[in-house]
Amino acid sequence: MPDTRSRADGARVHADLHALRAIGAYKTGVHKPTFSEPHRQSLEWLVRKLPEAGLTAAIDGIGNVFGTSTKHGPNLLAGSHLESQNYAGWLDGPLGVVYALEAARVLNADPSLKGAVEVAAWCDEEGHFGHFLGSRSYVGQLTEADIDAARDRTDGRTMRDALADMGLAGRARVTAEPGRHVGYLEAHIEQGDTLESGHLAIGVVTSIVGIWQYQINFLGEQNHAGTTRMAARKDAGLALAKFCVAIDERFPGACGPRTVWTTGRITLDPGAPSIIPGTAEMLFQIRDDDPAVIARLEDLLRTMASEVNAQGRCSVTVERIRTGAPAMMNSGFQDAIEAASKDFAGGRSLRMPSGAGHDAQTLAAIMPAGMLFVPSIGGISHHWTENTADDDIVTGAQVFVDACRRILGG
Amino acid sequence: MPDTRSRADGARVHADLHALRAIGAYKTGVHKPTFSEPHRQSLEWLVRKLPEAGLTAAIDGIGNVFGTSTKHGPNLLAGSHLESQNYAGWLDGPLGVVYALEAARVLNADPSLKGAVEVAAWCDEEGHFGHFLGSRSYVGQLTEADIDAARDRTDGRTMRDALADMGLAGRARVTAEPGRHVGYLEAHIEQGDTLESGHLAIGVVTSIVGIWQYQINFLGEQNHAGTTRMAARKDAGLALAKFCVAIDERFPGACGPRTVWTTGRITLDPGAPSIIPGTAEMLFQIRDDDPAVIARLEDLLRTMASEVNAQGRCSVTVERIRTGAPAMMNSGFQDAIEAASKDFAGGRSLRMPSGAGHDAQTLAAIMPAGMLFVPSIGGISHHWTENTADDDIVTGAQVFVDACRRILGG
User: Fold this and answer.
1) A259 CA to chain B: closest CA distance, Å?
2) Cβ B273–A266 below 8 Å, yes or no?
3) Which residues of A touch B27 (CB under 8 A)?
C-alpha cells in the first residue's frame, strides 16, 4: 500500500523543470555551461526556491548551492547539478535537483517524519573546468591549486576569473560536516536505453563505473603540404588516425563485457589545410567498473605507444589525466529505491550499473550513496534532443520522495 | 660577363627583410596573419618604401599593394605577399616582395633601360580567408559574393569586418590593365630541400602544381560516452580515422610520382571527452601537376566514401572546395632566369616544378609568368624555424634583378 504521505506533486515538478529549461533554452534543450549567465540564473532560481522546503539557501565559494535544515533528526543529502554540456539536454542534472527539492518540500513539512532532506546542486559535474569540481570540493578532494589551474575547456577562461565574474571570489567553500548526513541520494536520467527497451520505469543503480582519461600526444614534423615528399613526411595527424584505428582493432580482445572507450577530441597543430601537422593530440577515455580490466587496457595502450615509438617516424606519449575508481552504491539505499518502486512504479525497476559518472560516486567516498534512474527516450544523452516521457518524470519523482522517506526511517 | 648595371645591394635587401621580420616577430619567424595589425604595418612599410624605386604606392580594396611607374616603355610586374601563416617563417612572401622592390630600385633609375619593374604585394596568398584572394581579385576571378562569404579560418571574423578594420571598406579593387605588363616574375623560398641537397643556388620553376581541396564530412550519432554500448555506437570520429588510414593505404596505388596529399585539419563535434562525436570533418588536399592523376585520385576518394556509406553505420560526403589547375611557367622567362644564374650564381640552377601554390599561378592565367626559388635550409617551411642562408638571399637578389633586366629587354 503506497504511503500517501510520500505523494509528490507532479505538476509542481514539471513546472520547476520547465522554469529551469527556460533559462538558457536551446532548441528543445539548453545551453548552460558552468559559470555562464544561464547557469548563474539557475543557481539563483534554486536559492529562491529552497525556502519553500524550509531550507536556508546559500552558494559557496565554488558555486555549490546548499539548502540546509534546522529540523531535528537525521538529514539525508539529495541533489544533482544545474549546468549542462554545451547545447545539450534539459533534464541532465536539473531532474535530480528538482526531485531533491520536491522531496524536501514534501518530507520536511511532515511533522510525523523525524529529520529532513537537505538539497545540494553540485557545480560543474559536466566538467567544463575539470571533473566533479563541486562535489570533490565538498568531500575535501579539491585544492586551491586545482582551482588556480582550472580553465574552461571551451574558451580557456580561468576558473578564478569565472568565479570572480559570478561574484564568488574569496567566498569560503563548504565541506562535509562529519555525521551530519545519513547518506546521499541522487536521481538522474539513465542516458542509455536499457530501461526504455525493457519497458521499465526505474533504474536502481548498483555501481558507478570508473572513468580513466588519457591525453595522447603525437610528435612529428611540421612542414609544407606541397613541397614535402610523402616518403619524407612525419605526419603527426596520420600517426594519430592509425592509433585510433589500432585501438578499435585491439581493445575488443582485451576488454570486459561492459567496457566502453571513446576518442572525444582530436586536435591537429597547426590545423591548416596546407601544412603537415607537426603535433596532434587526442583525448581518450576508458570506462569500466572493474579496475583489473582498466589496468589491462592501459597496459595495452602503452604497449601500442611503444610500438609506434619503435617505428621511429613519429613519437607518442600516453599520459593518464584522470583516474576514477568505480563506486559501489549502498545496498540499503538500493533496497529503499526498489521498495519505493514496488509501491509507486508497479515494481518496474531494474538493478543496473551506471556507465556515466555522477556526483554520487564522489559522495560515496565519505557517506552511503544511492542513485535512481528514469528512462531516456531513445537512450539519447548529451544532445539537445535528450528527453524523458512526462509520466516517467512524475513516476520517478514519486519513487524518489518515497525512497527518501524510507532512508530517513519513515 | 655579368651586367654590372644589374647589381643588387645585398645589404639593403637584408635590411629590408629584417625590417619586415621585426613587424610581428615570433621566435626567429613571424606571426602575421592576413589583416592582423602586423600585416597592416607591413603593407604600410611597403607603401613608404615604393617611392624609393620611383613608384607611386597604393593599397586597393582587397589589401593588395601596388607600386606603379610612369616611366616610358614595357612594364614587368613583380612581387609576392607580406602576410604569413600562423607562427611561421620570415621569408615566405617578404623575400619576393623585397626582391621586386630591389629590382625596381636598381632598374627603374637606369636611364639606359627602357621600361620599369612595377611591384605588387598580393593579399592573403596564405589563405587565411580563402585562397589567393588578392591575385584572383586582380585577374578578375573574385566576386563581391566571394568576399561576402569569406571568413578568417582561425577566428571566424568575416572578411568584410577585417577590411573595415583595415580602413579598406568601400575602396575599389584594382584589376589588371590589358597590355600594361609584359609578364609577372616572382621569387620565393623553395620550401623543400631539392636545391640544398644538390648544392644549388637557384630553382627555375617550370610549372606550379594544382591544388585540389576537399571537405569530407562524417555523420554518426552524438551520444554519451559512458552509457552507449560499443556495438550500438555511430562514432563519426572513428569513421574519420578509418578513412584517413584507408587513404594512406590506397592512394599510393593510384598516385603519380610526385603526388602529395595531406589531411591538415580534423574536427570532432562536439569535441568533449565524454561525448561520442556525432559529426566529424577533415580538410583534405591533393597536389599534382597532372590533372589526369588528380581525376583518378578523386574517383578513388569518392569510391571509398561510397564503401563507407554502404556499410551504413556512419555516412560520409566528399565535397571539392577548391580546384586549382596546374600552371606552366613561360619558357622565355625560364631562359632569362637561367641566363642570369649563369652570370650571378655560377650556373648553379635547376629547372624544377613547384609543389607549393603561388600567386604566379593565378597571374599565369592572364600574362606570361615566371618564378625563381632560393634554397630553404633543411627544406623547412610553414614553421617559424624556416630560413635561408644569408649568401643565398643575396645571390637570389642578384639573379632576380638581372632576370628582370633581361625580360625587359635590357
Assistant:
1) 8
2) no
3) none
Q: B157-187 in b/e burial notation, b at 16+ Cβ within 10 A? A: bebeebbeebebeeeebbebeeeebbbbbbb
> CA gyration radius for chain B?
23
Q: How far is B228 from chain A (nearest CA, A)?
A: 6
For chain B, domain boundaries = 4-209+326-407, 210-323
Alpha-carbon distance values, B178 to A324, B94, B97 (Å): 70, 27, 23
Cα B257 to chain centroid, rounded? 22
Chain A residue whose CA is closest to B283? A273
Give Cβ neighbours of residue B307 (< 8 Å, ≥ 6 apart).
none
Q: What is the mean pLDDT of chain B?
A: 95
- Name the residue of chain A whose CA is nearest to B241's CA: A241
The set of residues, in sequence order, having a beta carbon less than 8 Å from that of B193 and lying 6+ positions away, is: B376, B378, B379
H helix or E strand, kind and range, residue A214: strand A210-219
Could you tell me which chain B residue has the CA closest to the CA of A240?
B241
Q: What share of chain A is helix, strand, coil (3-state, %, to 5)?
A: 35, 25, 40
pLDDT tens string A1-59: 788 888 999 999 999 999 999 999 999 999 999 999 999 999 999 999 999 999 999 99
B266/A237 Cβ within 8 A: yes
Residue B127 pLDDT class (50, 70, 90 cuts): very high
What's the gap in Å between the CA of A153 and the closest CA on chain B? 9
User: What average pLDDT does chain A have?
Assistant: 95
Q: Which of B252, B253, B239, B314 is CA-nearest to residue B282? A: B239
Half-sphere exposure of A7 (CA within 13 A, CB side): 5
Of A262, A274, A355, the CB nearest to B285: A274
DSSP secondary structure string for all residues of A241-263: HHHHHHHHHHGGGT--TT-EEEE
Per the listing, cell 511532515 goes with: A110
Least CB-CB distance to A274: which of B228, B274, B382?
B382
Q: Give the N- to C-terminal CA distance of chain A in Å, as an integer.
A: 14
State which residue of chain A sits closest to B268, comparing Cα positions.
A265
Choices 3.30.420.40, 3.10.310.30, 3.40.630.10, 3.30.930.10: CATH for B4-209+326-407: 3.40.630.10
Nearest to B369 by CA among B190, B141, B180, B206: B206
Instruction: Write the residue in A190, A268, A355 that is nearest to B265 by C-beta.
Output: A268
d(CA A223, CA A231): 13
pLDDT above 90 (res B136): yes
> Is A81 labeled as ligand-binding?
yes
**A381 interaction partners in chain B (CB closer than 8 Å):** 223-224, 227-228
Q: Is A126 annotated as a binding residue?
A: yes
- Identify any residues that bridge with A215 across adjacent strands, giving them in sequence order: A283, A319
A-chain residues within 8 Å CB-CB of B375?
A: none
> Taking CB atoms and an 8 Å cutoff, what residues of chain B touch A271?
264-265
Range A243-247 average pLDDT: 98
Q: Which pLDDT value is given to residue B131?
A: 84
Q: Where are the beta strands (DSSP E) in A15-136?
A: 25-26, 29-30, 56-59, 65-68, 75-80, 116-121
Query: Would the CB atoms of A228 and B277 count as touching at under 8 Å?
Result: no
Alpha carbon of A43: minimum distance to chain B alpha carbons (Å): 24
- Check the annotation: does B126 bind a ligand: yes
Chain A to chain B Cβ contacts (< 8 Å)? 225
Can you name the CATH fold of B210-323? Alpha-Beta Plaits (3.30.70)
Which of B268, B285, B383 has its CB closest to that of A222? B383
**Mind spelling out the 3-state secondary structure of A4-21?**
HHHCCCHHHHHHHHHHHH
ipTM value > 0.90: no
Homologous superfamily assigned to A4-208+326-407: Zn peptidases (3.40.630.10)
pLDDT grade for A96, boundaries at 50, 70 and 90: very high
